[in-house]
Amino acid sequence: LTWAPHASGMNAGDKAGSGDSGDSFGSGWDIVTNIDMGGFGVDGLTLHAGMSQIDYTNIVANTGDRTEYSFAAVYAFNNFTIGYQETDENLNAAAGGGTSNYDNSMYGISFNVNDDLTISYGKTESEKDVMGGTNITMEATSLQLAYTVGGASIRLAEASVDNVAYNTAAGEDNDGTTLSVSLAF
């Protein structure tokens, strides 16, 4: 549980002071909990939940306080780990064209083939709700492979993102492949 009496402070850089960002924020609070369900007879299941609220002091630009919610579950059994998460960020913009909300869902699964080889897949969808405009969904998927033997690791990731930065223009769908090799001596 955390509380900030004035949530609009700016980050301080090296050898610099911080200050007020000029935003219309009042106080803010967060609460987060993690529950290992093994104590309730469900070995391998962990539940996560969190909530955050920041008070808006400028009610002209926003229709309410800024709130965020997060719920997740991770279940590990045998060589598999499966996770799912839902998050919601309410910005409550009052002006047309402003972002009022982000709805996000994510899931992933990993499989340890053996002590040296792991395969995993993940997918994220994030919908940006625009006041008086068109809602846009950004989607990202990734497939990964990791192999470790001795002090050497080889990792391969194939990723794809559609509507990067919530932009539907041509060229905003990107794909990428990453290969990394590391050696420990």
Strand and helix map with partners:
Elements: E1 2-4, E2 25-36, E3 45-56, E4 66-77, E5 80-90, E6 99-112, E7 117-130, E8 136-149, E9 152-162, E10 174-183
Antiparallel strand pairs: 1-2, 2-3, 3-4, 4-5, 5-6, 6-7, 7-8, 8-9, 9-10
Structural class call reads: mainly beta
- Give the biggest sheet: 10 strands, antiparallel
Query: Into which percent range does the helicity of residues fall?
Result: under 10%
Distance between the termini: 42 Å
Global geometry = globular
What integer is the average pLDDT?
A: 87
Report the order of strands and helices.
EEEEEEEEEE
The residue ranges in which pLDDT falls below 50 over 5 or more consecutive positions are none
User: Number of DSSP strands?
Assistant: 10
In percent terms, what proportion of residues is strand? over 45%
If strands are numbered along the chain, what order do they take across the biggest sheet?
1-2-3-4-5-6-7-8-9-10
Whole-angstrom Rg: 21 Å
Number of helices: 0
Which features does this protein show?
ten-stranded antiparallel sheet; globular; mainly beta
Model description:
The protein is an all-beta fold. The protein is built from no helices and ten strands. It has a ten-stranded antiparallel sheet with strand order 1-2-3-4-5-6-7-8-9-10, with no helix packed on it.
